[in-house]
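Re: export button greyed out
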Amino acid sequence: MMKSYRNAVWFSESERMPITNITSDVRECLVESGIKEGLVLINAMHITASVFINDDESGLHHDYKKWLEAMAPHEPVNSYRHNDTGEDNADAHIKRQIMGREVVVAVTAGKLDFGPWEQIFYGEFDGRRKKRVLVKVIGE
Amino acid sequence: MMKSYRNAVWFSESERMPITNITSDVRECLVESGIKEGLVLINAMHITASVFINDDESGLHHDYKKWLEAMAPHEPVNSYRHNDTGEDNADAHIKRQIMGREVVVAVTAGKLDFGPWEQIFYGEFDGRRKKRVLVKVIGE
Amino acid sequence: MMKSYRNAVWFSESERMPITNITSDVRECLVESGIKEGLVLINAMHITASVFINDDESGLHHDYKKWLEAMAPHEPVNSYRHNDTGEDNADAHIKRQIMGREVVVAVTAGKLDFGPWEQIFYGEFDGRRKKRVLVKVIGE
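Workaround output, generated via the alternate export path:
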């Protein structure tokens, strides 16, 4: 019989462009779901943020932020038409597209079916927004 | 019992780089599927196009197009080896990789399980192609 | 009744930034799974590599590599803080984020539900790593 599970995980951050390891939060959801074989979707519920999988290494996270800022600079704020609406976060909407909205991970024998270094991160590019990640598991 | 649903949604556009809100098309598919809990995959069936989730704000869409053109300019056409084949759309194949091929969205209580501003878009970067999006729902 | 299938496909490459067509490997997994309707997830198990869908055209693959190198150059190696750890592959971690970790493909009537030109590729951006791709199918 197919089962499904849904949880919206909230958390808070103090930095402007935080990258937060949420792997253990997702693991807790998976245990709670009781699902052994299936797929888990983890997505940002905010459109200036990304969920992505990579290495838990602070130098790399520094490199990502520096590189994203070079690709889509926050300033000058008035170089983006989106910011004519009164927002100043057009760059964050672009950064999120580069890094992606979501990841889908295989669930095998009740575990995240990961390679040796894979960890799940929430990256927020406009730090004043609330942080909420959706975890949806389907399988059996 | 697991159910599945499949629909290929066609639509047409007049611009060269249109960004079209397809959220209501996907919602119609979801209702038609009768699936209440599961996942829905929405993907471009063309390799110069993207399906992505972000804000329905025309200034932002302008910013995306301008930024994508700066990242992977259409011209000079002969700077890309792909265009030696007689095509002139190498830049569109690159733009599509930045913006992504597909999104996967949770289905909860028969609805798209979205944050407050999430909307689904089809972005075509080589406007002469036909526009077709695949919607596949699995769940129960 | 929901079924699931899992296989980790290994392969080897000699180039530094190989792009390998793995569509037939995925098709073999799908046949082996016996699943007719559902979703298949195909993801890199390494964090300097991507699985993506695009055209099987060698000029385009050349364009991707040249463009990725311009976006996130390998050298100077010491311009990345990640490389202070003794690695020299920070650029590969960035390239992988641009091209994506995974694809999700619809399974319809026992086949990959593809548009006319869609093919699945494994792109490795730090060629010294082992190449392993996870294929997970769920459905019935």
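Residues 58-71 of chain B form the longest helix (14 residues). The button fix ships in the next patch.
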